């Protein structure tokens, strides 16, 4: 008889003041992943959770279900509910999480993890609107306000609202590879991977009338990642000066053109490591890194593993 693998249990913790949209993201995204995940929702006392809207949400589980979770997701609360100290029952609920369980925060839930000491010495992110407050309250956290999410091993944090979609797709991609993550994205009608970081969503002055976008140039560059593209090539394609292109690109994407190119090359390299038997040097050439050593360096900087280790993990899951 073939043993049936147990589903990966994800428990979403809803606190008072929770945002209903973000609360539903894990169930919607992970629930579309071909039955690989079981998603449950709980509160710190098993009672309904007040939302930041005009209704409450009833749940079927209390904090005891956290003890069986493989991944715990903390849903965000309204900004005005964020406090210096954890609300009643939250510390006790978090103490139920197994030491080997993965923990994920969406948006302002990073404040909850930080207040519990779970982000001390770690790189993390949260909604751009509250980053100044977060830094004042938790100086021991290495806050990165520009990204959509941060994967710091056992603990993952994501930025505002829809970045919960990004981090949940990342979990599927990390656990089961690009193919399933892309399938989930199509089912949920969302992009499988968003360009840039949350800096592109921060309030900016209205651009001058008729200002050209860099979107067409980004699409053009994605078809030429194997070429040695530099800022001058991108600016020339966009028919802008170097300075104007660099400024407009950062305003739209939240990253410099060079950093964005590296990010896209790493994404493409990860796909080839999963889906092909090409050597590391061959993949490096196809994605635009000069050498296999350069690919190893950038992949390790992005996700903390070597190409060989990444390939072993995800090819075994195919």
* Arithmetic mean pLDDT: 89
What does the overall shape look like? globular
Per the CATH scheme, the topology name of the largest domain is Rossmann fold
The number of domains is 2
Distance between the termini: 22 Å
Q: In the CATH hierarchy, what is the class of the largest domain?
A: Alpha Beta
Account of the protein in words:
The longest helix is centred in the last third of the chain and has 19 residues, at 257-275. The chain has 13 helices and 10 strands. The strands form 3 sheets. The chain has a 6-stranded mixed sheet with strand order 2-1-5-6-10-9, sandwiched between helices. A two-stranded antiparallel sheet has the order 3-4. A two-stranded parallel sheet has the order 7-8. It has helices at residues 20-30, 90-94, 109-115, 131-137, 163-176, 178-188, 215-222, 231-238, 242-253, 257-275, 280-287, 292-303, 307-316, and strands at 8-13, 37-42, 49-50, 56-57, 71-74, 102-105, 123-124, 142-143, 149-152, 155-158. The chain is globular. Strand 1 (8-13), helix 1 (20-30) and strand 2 (37-42) form a beta-alpha-beta unit. Mean pLDDT is 89; it is low at 204-210. Helices cover 42% and strands 11% of the residues. The protein folds into 2 domains: 8-188, Rossmann fold (3-Layer(aba) Sandwich), CATH 3.40.50.880; 211-318, Orthogonal Bundle (Arc Repressor Mutant, subunit A). It is an alpha/beta fold.
